[in-house]
Write a structure and sequence with these properties.
Elements lengths: L6 E5 L4 H13 L5 E5 L3 H6 L2 H4 L6 E5 L5 E5 H12 L4 H7 L4 H18 L10 H4 L5
Parallel strand pairs: 1-2
Antiparallel strand pairs: 1-3, 3-4
Helix pairs in contact: 4-5
């Protein structure tokens, strides 16, 4: 059962590299804190403004705060904050990476995003387990 306000990572559902990154995050998320939704899907339409949904090369991370508000990050900041929130082994490199200027991080992110379809040719995807499947939102 999905929580009323989960932390959600929105990604390009048609991108092989993006799908592999989601599976890395699933393995890191032993506490099942994070949910995933394609940026082209229904959940994104309900949760994100059109400006964020129209740029498929941008990953978006939304996390509810204790006061009921939602914080939204994009690009490198989204990935790093999600990794830190998961409390997995990659949180330390992510924390250190946040010390770099965001302009540098986003320059690298944008370069990868421009080339993601060349590196991440869509292949047969691994079938998620039933518990993992519950964490994918439409």
């Amino acid at each position: 059962m999905k929580p009323s306000s989960p932390a959600i990572l929105f990604y390009d559902g048609d991108c092989g590299l993006c799908n592999r990154a989601v599976h890395v995050l699933l393995r890191q998320d032993r506490g099942e804190r994070l949910y995933f939704a394609p940026i082209q899907g229904v959940t994104a339409q309900e949760c994100l403004p059109i400006a964020l949904r129209s740029t498929l090369s941008t990953v978006v991370y939304q996390r509810p705060n204790s006061d009921g508000t939602v914080t939204t990050w994009t690009r490198s900041e989204a990935l790093l904050c999600a990794l830190i929130d998961l409390q997995g082994s990659l949180r330390w490199p992510a924390t250190i990476s946040r010390w770099l200027p965001i302009s540098w991080r986003d320059a690298v992110y944008n370069w990868i995003a421009r080339n993601r379809h060349h590196w991440g040719k869509r292949q047969v995807c691994a079938v998620p387990s039933p518990s993992e499947r519950m964490r994918f939102l439409p």
